[in-house]
Amino acid sequence: MATTPEVLPHMDAVQAALTAVGLTVYVGGTPAGNGWTAPDKFAVLYPDPGMARCESLADERTDFDSTMQITCVGGDPVRALWVADRVRRALAAPLAVQGRACWPAEDLGGPPLARDDDVTPPLFYVPVQYRICSTPA
Question: Among 5, 59, 99, 133, fewest CB within 10 Å belongs to which?
Answer without folding.
Answer: 59
